[in-house]
Design goal:
GO terms for molecular function: ATP binding; ATP hydrolysis activity. The chain is of the alpha/beta class. It has a domain of 186 residues: 3-Layer(aba) Sandwich (Rossmann fold). It is built from 13 helices and twelve strands. A hairpin with a 2-residue loop joins strand 4 and strand 5. Bound molecules: adenosine-5'-triphosphate, iron/sulfur cluster (SF4) and magnesium ion. The site of magnesium ion has 3 residues, from helix 1. The site of adenosine-5'-triphosphate has 14 residues, from helix 1.
Length: 339
């Protein structure tokens, strides 16, 4: 079966990552910030999960915790589970986590320039992984590095391995980062806003490349982004985060057609329906809560135009809306059955 046929299949063999009820807090002298308050999501082989949400909703902290690179202290995991191919990551030792990083799961970041070392050629930086993790000779490792640059469609790869990061444009640097993250052939890739620093045309090219690589390699891709246009084009499923929780999850088509949570609705509002590319999430009135003092009841209630008394008192449960869709709103069923 091809990787594409596997999309969202959800069989035990294709389930790459399962995050369940993840809790993370950041402690400081000013108090404890409840940054993740029960995040759950999963990704299967060959599919793209998009993670959406305003700044501070916990998208990157979740990704860092999955990768085992959470800044501890001040960040502490206080509950939940992260299973990679069924293996619990939160109790795996640091050695095992290191072994899995790069080989099995990799992450690319928004800012390729600061992630690359300016004093080494890009070839050297990619080749390091082949030398230290695969025991290759310097020459063979450089040849592999050139192959990787070629794979991410950097023209004239054999020459360009010898160049330094500053000699590459922003888009080309991001391609280098993708090459570096895929060097050891991971089956799970987390891309944390991989295109925000780039102009719109280059963003589209990088997204097309990631999508193509995902398809060719049967990788699971977690795409963290603010760009709804990108999400509409490439995501199979979407998880929407608010104040450290997933508040709605759905396949991309259903979510765009009819959001099942007022927060998702807010994010989608005022987005031009045609040519959405490059449009940021709409701003919703008010601000996300201070994570040291999350409001009682539904955390979204101070900003929600649908809020009723119950919303101020009772934390909404996750309502199962069928076909893998769910929403943490008291009125979820009503919302999706509107005309
Ligand atoms: N190292 C840290 N120390 C203290 N607080 C942190 C740290 N890293 C993240 N946080 C806090 O955790 C919360 C969630 O941050 P996170 O970076 O996950 O948000 P995000 O959803 O990725 O936002 P953005 O869209 O801006 O990238 C924020 O309130 C942030 O201030
Ligand atoms: S539970 Fe109430 S406040 Fe929360 S999103 Fe739904 S309607 Fe709004
Ligand atoms: Mg982030």
């Amino acid at each position: 079966m091809s990787a594409v046929d596997n999309r969202g299949g959800g069989s035990p063999e294709s389930r790459l990552l399962e995050v369940e009820d993840l809790h993370v807090e950041f402690r400081s002298k000013d108090g404890t910030a409840n940054v993740l308050n029960g995040v759950s999501y999963h990704v299967d082989a060959g599919e793209t999960l998009a993670v959406l949400g305003e700044s501070g909703s916990g998208k990157s902290v979740t990704a860092q915790t999955v990768m085992g690179i959470l800044d501890t202290p001040p960040g502490f995991v206080t509950g939940g589970s992260i299973r990679y191919r069924g293996e619990e990551m939160l109790t795996a030792g640091e050695e095992r986590r290191r072994e899995l990083r790069g080989e099995n799961m990799a992450m690319i970041f928004q800012d390729a320039l600061s992630a690359l070392n300016p004093v080494f050629t890009v070839g050297f930086q990619i080749a390091e992984q082949f030398r230290f993790r695969r025991g290759m000779s310097r020459k063979d490792a450089m040849a592999k590095a050139a192959e990787m640059l070629d794979m991410v469609k950097i023209p004239n790869a054999k020459q360009r391995v010898k160049e330094f990061p500053h000699q590459f444009s922003g888009g080309m640097r991001q391609r280098v980062m993708i090459a570096m993250s895929l060097a050891l052939d991971p089956d799970l890739l987390i891309a944390d806003e991989p295109t925000t620093a780039l102009d719109v045309t280059v963003q589209a090219q990088i997204m097309d490349l990631l999508d193509e690589l995902r398809r060719e390699r049967g990788m699971g891709l977690i795409l963290i982004t603010h760009d709804l246009g990108v999400v509409a084009e490439v995501a199979d499923r979407i998880s929407v985060m608010y104040a450290g929780r997933v508040v709605e999850k759905a396949d991309a088509h259903s979510l765009y057609k009819q959001p099942g949570h007022p927060y998702t609705e807010g994010l989608m509002e005022s987005i031009p329906r045609l040519d959405m590319k490059g449009h940021e999430l709409a701003s919703i009135q008010g601000l996300p809560p201070t994570l040291t003092n999350i409001p009682p009841g539904c955390p979204f209630h101070p900003r929600c135009h649908r809020a009723e008394d119950a919303c101020r008192e009772k934390v909404p449960e996750f309502h199962d809306l069928g076909l893998g869709r769910a929403s943490a709103c008291h009125f979820a069923e009503e919302l999706i059955s509107r005309d």
